[in-house]
Amino acid sequence: xxxxxxxxxxxxxxxxxxxxxxxxxxxxxxxxxxxxxxxxxxxxxxxxxxxxxxxxxxxxxxxxxxxxxxxxxxxxxxxxxxxxxxxxxxxxxxxxxxxxxxxxxxxxxxxxxxxxxxxxxxxxxxxxxxxxxxxxxxxxxxxxxxxxxxxxxxxxxxxxxxxxxxxxxxxxxxxxxxxxxxxxxxxxxxxxxxxxxxxxxxxxxxxxxxxxxxxxxxxxxxxxxxxxxxxxxxxxxxx
Length: 239
Description:
single chain; 239 residues; alpha/beta; TIM Barrel; 11 helices; 8 strands
């Protein structure tokens, strides 16, 4: 586990901006999240800026397809050096998850598959229509998806901060489970398009291992100071 447990999304549209951002935050956050915007533009070259600057890498591709396709995609993704985490949708089912985890563990440098439960942007009527459950049942759905993924071999999960306590009650650190939590908003921050949010302190106290924090850092008047303040808050909450 990285000492600094902030995951900063590298949500920029160009390689030049990726290098600039990685140079600016070198030593200030532990992991850079390379997502769909940058990876679909640059391909594997998107991994060079964080890798060259000593960051851990969360490759956030949110894979979700038939088992064979996902297995081959995971194999391809894990062939690139420096990746710590790779995201796969738990909703893809048990067989898909088994194949994904198997491919990630068979890599020369094994990668932790993070099973995505329910996106933090889903709530209310959208949640009801997709899962045929009331919005009050989010925790139940998250636990069910995580259990399916765990039984398929996954030992990492992505969930909102409102469900992290429930997942940590299911899977302790002794189970080798890592919880990665987006939807983090320090006090006074805008919620933007996230619906199920919480503060860094509450998420860490509830059992999160890593916090994905983007706009509250990038949009701060002093982004570096914002990252340092959040890191200090997380460290205090962990003790």
